[in-house]
């Protein structure tokens, strides 16, 4: 989880700049702020339960680490940051109600979150007229970039590569590094999963790959046996002829820890042979625990890495050491 949490240090840097701008604006105005003169309230809406509950606690620790460093250095314009934390429950309605409460009753100047793209999108729509910045370290869907009119959201920022980059990176990896030119997709049916399908299909096809089957699923199901059966059913062409080969199918699983773990358990029970590639949202110890270590043996995944250059590596190592010192 440390690599994922590193995105939340970047959130603190972006947030600091926003706070400075707001603080200067407050100094130049006669408006009375609902904030305590010595405190700057910042909302945090993360999943501590539900589909993405595996992420919330570790992400909050990363945010708290950054806030502690800012406060220990004297705060922002002499004022300390105070976090007001809420559980999104990985539920759009819960996140939206919490966001409105934080803005209207707690007087926060920004909200960090949510983790999940679909939750973030609906939360953003609920508060888009309330002039409060939303900053996410993990919501990647390109749907978050656009209003209905086609303009970028002026209040939404993120510190993570979007789904376009994730899809392109995976497509290049499969074609040019692994030599896998045929793939099947098993994707969560939400704005993140659908964005991934669109961009991966485009880039993978441009690089010479072929997607022979796409199966979508919804989160929260007790069993995914039906989706597994559909995923591994024989592939036929337009005239009804089977296009099956002797090779073991390569499957890209796009989703979240709780349902993703159930999918892997159901797949192992099914007896089908497959090679699996998991997207970055499944990179968590809790996913392995829920799926069963024996069931995830041999499964590979992708995730962003923050040490691509020497300068980035130094920053990443600093964060990793500070995180371990504070929380381990």
Question: Could you describe the 3D structure shown?
Answer:
The structure is a single chain. The chain is α/β, with parallel strands linked by helices. The protein has two domains: 2-160 and 308-327, Rossmann fold; 163-301, Response regulator (Rossmann fold, 3-Layer(aba) Sandwich). The protein is 46% helix and 16% strand. It contains ten helices and ten strands. The protein has helices spanning 2-27, 53-72, 92-106, 117-127, 163-178, 191-206, 225-232, 257-270, 285-291, 310-327, and strands at residues 39-46, 80-87, 110-113, 133-136, 156-158, 182-188, 210-217, 250-254, 275-278, 300-301. Helix 4 links the parallel strand 3 and strand 4 (133-136). Helix 5 packs parallel to helix 6. The longest helix is centred in the N-terminal third of the chain and has 26 residues, at 2-27. The two termini are 13 Å apart. The relative contact order is 0.12. Residues 27-33 have low confidence and may be disordered.
Please provide the count of β strands.
10
What percent of the residues sit in helical stretches (DSSP H or I)? 40-55%
CATH architecture of the largest domain: 3-Layer(aba) Sandwich
Query: What's the number of structural domains?
Result: 2
Question: What is the name of the CATH topology of the largest domain?
Answer: Rossmann fold
**H/I helix tally:** 10
Percent range for β-strand residues = 15-25%
Name of the CATH class of the largest domain: Alpha Beta
Please trace the helix and strand order, writing H or E for each element.
HEHEHEHEEHEHEHEHEHEH
CATH homologous superfamily title of the largest domain: Response regulator
Biggest pleated-sheet summary: 5 strands, parallel
